[in-house]
Amino acid sequence: MTTTLSRRAARVAATSLTILVSLQTLGVAALAQQDAGAANVTAPVVTVAADDSGTTKRVESGAAAAGTTSAGAGIYRDPAQGASSSDLVRRALASNGELAAARIDVARARARLRQAGLRPNPTLDFEQTSERLTGAGTDRATSVGVALPLELGGKRGRRVELARVELEAVETEVADRERRLAGEVATLYSEALAALRELEITEGINRIDVDMTRFVQARVNEGESAPLELSLLQVEVDRLRSRRALVEGRLQSALVRLKSVAGIPPEETLKLREDLTAPALRTPPGSKEAAVEIALRTRPDLRFARLQEEAAEAGLRLARAQGVPNATVFTRYIFDRTITDLPAPLVPVPNYSRRLAFGISVGLPVFNRNEGAKEEAAAAISQARTRREFLEQLVRAEVASAYARYEAARAALSTYEQGVIQRSNNNIRAIRGAYEAGAFKITDLLTEQRRLVDSQRELTEALAEQYRALIDLNTAIGVTAQSAVESPKL
Predict the structure, then answer these.
(1) pLDDT tens across 89-105, in order?
(2) What would the DSSP string read from start to end of 229-255?
(3) Burial class (CB within 10 angstroms; exposed 0-12, middle 13-18, buried 19+) of 131
(4) Where are the domains of the chain?
(5) Closest Cα to residue 163, out of 299, 302, 307?
(6) 2-113+155-319+369-486 — its CATH code?
(7) What's the rounded Cα separation, in Å, for the pair 487 and 281?
(8) For residue 81, how many other CB atoms are within 10 A of its CB?
(9) Contact present, 12 and 219 (Cβ < 8 Å)
């Protein structure tokens, strides 16, 4: 009887130690994952099992034993062959339908530039007059003429100048669409990474609870624990399973939206390569002022606003040139045949004449000097200047806001790493000692576990906020996730 009780007590103590060590290991592994940036490692579960003699054995299960992530979260991550954020940005830039349609505007602008450089066509005139149709006589005349319009005031050069600026503006607008698309892809990628990390943490804690349920079930069967303890633990297990289903649904939703934006077919499998703790993004500048200076120099939308101002100025110069009247030079060859009637008995005598005429016609700017177009062009300059100045202020504000968010996220993350998670691990150690002394109940363990889950969830939110803030900062500066691979530092 004494031996049986001793074995039972040893088994209880060992299994209790199993749960506590598992909780501690989960927290330590999550912190190590944060520090090292291990993208594909789920927190290992360390089990301390007891045999019939009361001897404890340390067994690693889960991802640590198998060398891979859990079956649930593992289907969404592939550190070797998975897609990185820069891979998806490149694919989106090549496959996004809306961006492909926008690039057609560049071809249209090039066609307008070509058209602007063309000269007006000459005209050919042919005229035939005859008195036979009216019965007035037999006289007739034939004339052939050629006219060539001449654009005065530099109209052609002004048209070409305006079309060239508009082409640059369209190209810059497409570049801005690419910038915004890259930011959208990277943001969706960060949402998927955040959901994946929370899924991995939830699965790890759920495995611990399942192991604990077996232990408590054995104690209830032996009459050493109240059935209420098992019921409380089963409620916690079901709660984590429900939470896991919600998190996995959010992950799948983020992947579907990511596929749509990146131009990936819905049936194609998409696995993530990166980790939320190690963003593969361009390192931000060392100060807010440097970030603002880079943004004012490289932002495509700001460049577009400046080109719009240049286009308005070119439009004013074209309007002034169009106020100058055009001239038309022409030449005409005229052949006449007339009949001279003579008194009888003389017969009518035909007369033939050939003439060559030259001339020029010039419009007189008496009623229309293009005043309205000039006023409109001047107003367009003022409008473009106002938009450009407002956009410069907006860019400064966007960069300052994104930089502040990034710094705040870094500070919050540092607090979690050095304070919250570390204290949570210390609390687990303290509970382990108190539990061995019989001072804690299972409700205390569940409370501490929920606190650990909340801490990990908040850590994930801090990591996601840092990732998103870095994306927004790079987008505000005017760089993309794709360029981060080529130039990791500004």
Answers:
(1) 999 999 888 899 999 99
(2) HHHHHHHHHHHHHHHHHHHHHHHHHHH
(3) middle
(4) 2-113+155-319+369-486, 121-150+327-362
(5) 307
(6) 1.20.1600.10
(7) 10
(8) 7
(9) yes
